[in-house]
Design brief:
The structure is a single chain. This protein is mainly β. The chain contains one helix and five strands. It has one domain. The strands form two sheets. The protein has a three-stranded antiparallel β-sheet, with no helix packed on it. A two-stranded antiparallel ribbon has the order 2-3. A hairpin with a 6-residue loop joins strand 2 and strand 3. The chain is globular.
């Protein structure tokens, strides 16, 4: 299953997945990153991101 998140604010943002340990980079509004499905619950709580 492909899980993609998009940054919805005007700033650079990075987050590290607590399960996979993978670092996700967002460079500003509209930037997207494919996310490990195990990290989805964590990233879904962040107000600066939305799942697409």
């Amino acid at each position: 299953m492909r899980c993609v998140f998009e940054c919805i604010v005007g700033l650079r943002f990075s987050a590290q997945g607590p399960v996979s340990g993978r670092r996700y980079q967002f460079t500003g509004p509209g930037s997207r990153a494919e996310v490990d499905p195990r990290d989805v619950p964590y990233l879904a709580q962040m107000r600066v991101l939305r799942r697409v």
